[in-house]
Design a protein that fits this description.
binds 5-O-phosphono-beta-D-ribofuranosylamine; seven-stranded mixed beta sheet; about 40% helix
């Protein structure tokens, strides 16, 4: 059995898709959903599914090993970021080397880096009159959006698409692929 922790800052629609997808997988358990915001909707979702939750504080995350030790104590094997806006600190990166995965709502390396999150990404894509956008699933290192790319999915953009339309198309791709890619990564390690 492999145990994963999902970190999310907001709604958690990707987190939910992952939880639902993995319900049928007897070898992977979503053991924790953590958020830096105690009012994040993702925590309500976790509670509905009976998954343990934790609110991450800056002190526990950045100024000590407290949060890392929590993950170790509950034997977390993989960390899945799903709309998590804090930079992951180096103690977590080294303890979970190649076992932290993120999803980004653009075709990296384009439209990545600091400040490139949420609607900022889709507005920039729209302003540049791109003909395609998409999502990138990648491993996490100490720099925003720079770890090894594992999977990308793309979607066409029509001239009339607004930034919101682009966001909806990209989110659909995320929901379609992130659960399966996470499952594939974790299962590959259990063999
Ligand atoms: C997604 O677009 C993801 O790519 C980005 O944050 C968004 C999270 O959406 N990192 P949700 O909270 O899963 O609905």
């Amino acid at each position: 059995m492999k145990r994963i922790a999902i970190f999310a800052s907001g709604t958690g629609s990707n987190a939910r898709k992952i939880v639902e997808h993995l319900e049928d997988n007897k070898q992977i358990e979503v053991a924790l959903i953590a958020s830096n915001r105690k009012s994040a909707k993702v925590l309500d979702m976790a509670m509905k599914f009976g998954i343990d939750t934790k609110v991450i504080t800056r002190q526990d995350f950045y100024e000590s090993d407290r949060f890392l030790n929590t993950l170790k104590n509950i034997e977390i094997d993989w960390v899945v970021l799903a709309g998590f806006l804090w930079l992951v600190p180096s103690n977590l990166i080294s303890s979970y080397s190649n076992r932290i995965v993120n999803i980004h709502p653009a075709l990296l390396p384009a439209y990545g880096g600091k400040g490139m999150y949420g609607m900022n990404v889709h507005r920039a894509v729209k302003e540049n009159k791109e003909k395609t956008s998409g999502m990138t699933i990648h491993l996490v290192n100490e720099h925003y959006d720079e770890g090894a790319i594992i999977f990308q999915g793309s979607t066409d953009i029509e001239v009339n698409d607004t930034a919101e339309d682009i966001a909806a198309k990209v989110l659909k791709l995320e929901h379609e692929y992130y659960p399966r890619v996470v499952e594939g990564l974790v299962m590959a390690q259990t063999k």
